[in-house]
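Async update (no meeting this week)

Hi team, since we skipped the sync, here's where things stand on the single-chain job. The sequence we agreed to prioritize is pasted below, unchanged from the tracker. I ran it this morning and attached the output directly underneath so nobody has to dig for it. Comments welcome in thread, and please keep replies under the output.
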Amino acid sequence: MKVKKIASYKCFFFDFDGVLTNNKVITNNLGNEYVICNRSDGLYFNILKKLTNHIFIISTEKNRVVSARSKKLKISSYQGVKNKLQLIKEISKKNKFNLEESVYIGNDINDYLAMQECGLAICPADSHKIIKKISLVLKRKGGEGIVSEIIEDIFKINIKQYI
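Output:
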């Protein structure tokens, strides 16, 4: 899969569970769910915001943790999304960019159709085998700080200039 310079991409779409988390959930006896996110992703999202126009988190799940994390990262998020392809088409039309100019980072079969439409598909190392076949596969697993690998190793960005 050919990777263009980061400036060629107008938008980055991130799945939440299994990408920004390790795809595991802790549920307490009251039904509250907890996930673990990697703090370094926050630092690298700040760099990514300087390099691209649009970043979105898209989740099939509807969970307050997605809202809390996206609010802290200052990134728009969509939850309870049943048709991710339809949503990214709507986002690209509204923001006037072509999906070929976008990157989708996903891990599971509910990301498949959306990932196929984007110019670059990236997935964590522990993604579903079908997703791995259509993606650039990262060395890190979901929740292990994949945004830093994308910035530094895939796009070869020297982060020292952003410190």
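Quick observations from my side:
Helices lie at 39-51, 64-73, 84-95, 112-117, 129-133, 146-154.
The domain at 6-162 is CATH 3.40.50.1000 (Rossmann fold).
Reply here if anything looks off.
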